[in-house]
Each structure stands twice: as C-alpha cells, then as structure tokens.
Amino acid sequence: MTAHEARLLSRQNCITNTSGLAPGYLQANLLILPSKYARHFHDLCLRNPVSCPLLGITPPGDPHSVRPSSCIQTQDFDIRSDFPMYRVYSKGKCIGRQRDLYSVWTDTDDYVGFLIGCSFSFEDALAEAGLQPRHQKTGTVVAMYRSNIPLLPAGVFTGARCIVSMRPYKPEDVERVRDVTRPYLSTHGEPVAWGWDGAKKLGIENVHRPDFGEPQVFEEGEIPVFWACGVTPQMAVESAGEKIDGLVFAHEPGNMLVTDWTTDDLWRLREGTI
Amino acid sequence: MTAHEARLLSRQNCITNTSGLAPGYLQANLLILPSKYARHFHDLCLRNPVSCPLLGITPPGDPHSVRPSSCIQTQDFDIRSDFPMYRVYSKGKCIGRQRDLYSVWTDTDDYVGFLIGCSFSFEDALAEAGLQPRHQKTGTVVAMYRSNIPLLPAGVFTGARCIVSMRPYKPEDVERVRDVTRPYLSTHGEPVAWGWDGAKKLGIENVHRPDFGEPQVFEEGEIPVFWACGVTPQMAVESAGEKIDGLVFAHEPGNMLVTDWTTDDLWRLREGTI
C-alpha cells in the first residue's frame, strides 16, 4: 500500500488505527492552531525537539499543502480529513472527537497545522534488530506516562511536562536499544531514561499503572526503558488552557497521518538537506 | 573593533574577558572532543538546543576552519588559540587551564571543535529595550546554578543536568523580557523558568548562593528569571567521566570566541538559511 492509498483509507473512515499501515512510510502526530499561536508553537517544537520533533507545517488557512513539499507529494491532500480521527480542544480541554474537521475549519479560518514525528519508525528498526517492542508482540497499546521532564516554555505554552512511552527490555540490551534508536532524531531518537531508578527520576510512581495506553508485561529481570512521546504537544495545549482563544485540533492517539517520507528521508532531515 | 581583530587580541593573550568586546558580533562557547565522540556530542546538541545551541563545527583534525564557513570568514583562524583561555578536562575533571592548545592538539590529533551559542547577544537586546541585566550594571559575573532539568542523554553523555543563569526582574516586566529574548533561539532564547516558585521547581535551594559566577542584588519586589546556560556542555563532559578516553577542551567561562556572525545571522540561522 502506498502512503497516498493509506491516507485515502483514513479519509474514507475505513480504518481507526494506523499502526502497521503502509510499512516503510513515516507517520505523523498532529496539532492545528489559530495562526496567531503558530510562531509560539513553532518555537516550542524547536526548543523541545525530542518530544516535539517537527516534520512539516501547513501554510495559514491552507489545509492542502505541507512544507517541505516532499513530505506530502500529491495535490490530493486535506489535513482536515486524512487522519482517521481528530480531537477538538477548547480552553485546554478535549471537548470532542470528529472523523474530519470540515465543519470547524472553514474557508475563512487561518489555521496552521504542525506534523510531529512518531515512534513507529524506530519500532520497525528495533524489530529488525531482534528487539521487537513488547506491545507489538502482545497487540496492546504502548504504555505512556506523565513525566517530570519540563517542556521548555515558548510564549503561551508554559508549565507543561513531557509524556514518555515505555518499552521493557533486558538490562544487557539497553545499550543496543539506545544505539538502534539514536539516529532517529526526528522521531524521538534514543531513550530519555531507563531502569527502575530512571522511572523514579522521571517521577513515575508505578510503572504498572500508565497514565495512557495499556500496562506492559515485564519478563524476568527486565527493566523499563522510556522515550519521549508525541502526545506531549497535547499536554502543552492543556497547560496553555485559557491562554489560547479559539479551537485547537489534534489527532486521536494511534490515528496518525501516513506521510510520503520514508526512513531514508529521516537521514536527510538529520543532515538538514530536505 | 572587528571580530577578526578581537580574535587576534585573544590569540595574543591581550585580554581575559570578552564581555563587551566587538559589540554586535556573536560570541561562542567551546567544546573540543576526540572525533570518536563527535557524533554523540552533536546528537546531544541537537536534542538539547536550548542549553547547547550549535553554531558551528570544525572538521576532524582541522583547527583552522568552521562549518558553516560564514561563521568565521577569514583563513587566519585557529580554534586552539583564538579564545583567550582554555580548560583541559581528563576523565570528567578539569585538570588545568591554558592560554592555547598547541601543546595538546598536535598535527596527528583528530579533534573536533563545537561552537555553542552564548547569551551575550540577547543581553544587548535586553539593554536596548530598557531591561539591562543587573550584572551588567553592577559589573559582576552573572549568577549560575545547577538545575534539575535533565540534559536528554545522547551516547556517552548521560546523567547531566542543565546549568541555568539568572537575572532579577520585576514581575510586571517578565512577559516583556520573555518577548525580547524569545527570537534568540540560537543563543538560549526565552527563559526556562521564573519566580521564586520557578527557582524551587528547578531545585535551586538558595538563589543568593549561586554555584558559579557571583550573587546578584535583588531590588524591592524583584523575582529571579532563569535562562539555559552555555556552561552546560562542560557538565555533560563531567557526567560522562571515564567514558571519554582522551583529553577534552573547553573555553574558560567568560573567555569566549568572537565570531563573524551578527544578530542578523541569528535570524537566518533561525530560518535555516545559513
């Protein structure tokens, strides 16, 4: 399946989870804001690239194109429909879920969309290295936690903290896990912490009770390994609360955009040649 | 004075503090490592751009040029001498200070130098906006603290925390201070925390007893405002400790490199057009 075909399936509401869809293509998280907050959110991404790695931006009021254009290579694109499911935020609270955003983003609105990197890419690399993430094997949703790592503030976005995802590994595999995921800078890169001590330092009291997703099974001797997570931008919107006037849209976790970029493009992103 | 003239003064050991030297030109912090650790340190900068904003890199073993070349525009350059004073680190400890690095970086060494942004630029902007930093007025060294903000790990660089600098301001001026410094993304940008509560959240127990630099005088009603600080890379080297085999060099704090870049180049850096 091509990325374009995957986006059409999402647009036609034929799927609700993009995990494993169109293998080889990068998937993206989403945040859409009124243009007057776009510069602040852009700065937030540039200041916090591990949790909010910026892949692309839509011009104000234009839902049909992404810069850089290599990210979405067809004219037949609409950021208001090409994710399977959206969340609507008002004053920092999620007030609803919608299959598309046509009714809330009309021709006169000047919304700006941000595409944020997603960990699906490095999960494929881990699996290829014989280090398949537990939640892939067990068919569960990855465990996610609120951490105490501050999201460094930018404009109206103050006071938020990073969300982290967790995958269990044997202590002797941690260095290899770090090495495999390190190059994926635009999709969260290497872990931010590991071990039971690492969990404590992140302020996570009970690893077996995640704040989002599902608890993961630990095998004998395994320890938790934590990565920054693309749900973090939604926490930034929650923390901004009433400082944001107007609606904000995000993707429903797990319901991502399939882009035209592949892992090869990640290396070019890393070198700044896209 | 041109930037080149300022570098020659540093090379000839005619100055020991570059604050206020060659106004208008950007100054840079330094870290020099054996090339085998360069990729890890590069990743550390890309993952932590607020405390470690990368301005330029020297090719392995070549002390005479910087990429991008617009940063240093003359052939008459030597990163081993053009800072007024250097620190030498071994196994995570500062073991000495030298006026130049000729004796320790010889023709057969493959060292890579990293130039890191410095807050002098936004201090000029604050002064122009009528918000001159206290330490400029009192002729003291800015107060610096070890914070609890984790430096997100990269390769051998694990377990470090960010250093922050502090300037006192009136609470009603904080939003303007944030606005003035926000665009300076490559020189630490806007504050990471502010207020007495902010100090507590950073784990700073006594603002009047900084870990580096000098205590600052607070006027009636003023609160502390904290920025990420370019001394952080040296903390990363200390934390890496014995994981780094060989010598590491850094600048002596306050003894910076004057580059050929000006504030205008900062805007181009921000837009990725350098």
Polypeptide structure, described:
The structure is a homodimer of 274-residue chains. The first copy, chain A, is an alpha+beta fold. Chain A folds into two domains: 145 residues, PSTPO5379-like; 109 residues, 2-Layer Sandwich (PSTPO5379-like fold). Chain A is globular. The relative contact order of chain A is 0.24. The model of chain A has no long low-confidence stretch (mean pLDDT 94). Chains A and B meet through helix 2 of A and helix 2 of B.
Keywords:
homodimer, 274 residues, alpha+beta, PSTPO5379-like, PSTPO5379-like fold, 2 domains, four-stranded antiparallel sheet, 11 strands, D-glutamate cyclase activity (chains A, B), D-Glu_cyclase (chains A, B), lyase (chains A, B), UPF0317 (chains A, B)
| Class from secondary-structure proportions of chain A | alpha+beta
Largest sheet of chain A: 7 strands, antiparallel
What does the oligomeric state look like here?
homodimer
- Order of helix and strand elements from N to C terminus of chain A: HEHEEEEHHEEHEHEHEEH
Mean of residue pLDDT of chain A? 94
Helix coverage percent of chain A: 10-25%
CATH topology grouping of the largest domain in chain A: PSTPO5379-like
| Cα Rg of chain A | 18 Å
- Largest interface here, residues on each chain? A-B, 22 and 22 residues
Shape of chain A: globular
Q: Compute the number of structural domains of chain A.
A: 2
Under CATH, the homologous superfamily of the largest domain in chain A reads PSTPO5379-like
CATH architectural name of the largest domain in chain A: 3-Layer(aba) Sandwich
Strand content of chain A: 15-25%
Using the coordinates above, name the CATH class of the largest domain in chain A.
Alpha Beta
Total strand segments of chain A: 11
**Runs of chain A with pLDDT <50, length 5+?**
none
